[in-house]
Amino acid sequence: MIYTYILVMAATTYLIRMLPLVIFRKEIKNKYIIRFLSYVPFACLTAMTVPSIFYSTGTVLSAALGFAVAIILGYRKKSLPVVALFACLTVFIAQLLGL
Amino acid sequence: MKSFIQGLKDSIPIAIGYFSVSFTFGIMAAGFGISPLTAGALSLFNVTSAGQFAGITLFAVGSSYFELFVTQLVINLRYALMSLTLTQKLAPEVTVAQRFVMAYGVTDEIFAVAVTKDRPVTFPYMLGLEWFPILSWTLGTVAGGVANNLLPASIQSALGIALYGMFVAIVLPPASESFSVLFVVILAVILSCAFYYLPVLNAVSSGFSIIICTVVSAGIGALLFPARFEEQGS
Question: How many Cβ contacts (< 8 angstroms) between chains A and B?
Fold first, then answer.
């Protein structure tokens, strides 16, 4: 039953997000842990992106071109939707060209 | 009110990106015979990308609830690390009840935008940051489900990269400014590729491999460099 699936998924996911927020209410004093946590967002998003991005479209080459465009625009500090849109457009055009 | 509006402003790029990604999710759900409204409810109650894609794949093959629970736990465990990181950026006046509420919308992008700000994170700011992307994520799913067969395969395929494009847009600016962030990013790329391509290591599920890559590369970065917050002097 799809609704039970949704319920199990939603409850699991909410607990994972909620427990650390509610349990850890004090400022962490340990310098090493603070440093560690400050790098978590970049490490995590990067690990999710590479190499999965290469297999996110129809062909590896089109995805690689889209990735290259995203890197150039991201480096120039373009906003999230702009980078995402141009990555998609690049993939679309690359696939039209049969790449 | 001011920080609510600031949150809302910061959330607009996320919301736009979410629409295109959840649109793809809606198409996939429709392919598995899930109605657009049901898929929309799934998105509204979960607000996870990878977790939802895995969840409906398990639904399609009729997996047990236990398998579903374990898969969600592994894929989404990174949120625990994000929530823990978020606790260290919260303004002191944030209450426990407010923590229960804001936990609902801790996604990869919302978390990243919130903690990479120089200021402490307040409750109104998080509310402003969360509600619009959640709405957009839900509506995008319904739209994707409705549009299912109207969209050519070439466009569907091109939308597949949208989520990753957003990740790149979040990571690149700080990585180009700070050597320590760049170092951690390169380390994460190397480790993540090792877990994807090397024998033995590639037997590790993608959820666990994300956590291992995160912990190891952020851990080594922390050994070698001061905290990013300290660097910025805040």
Answer: 303
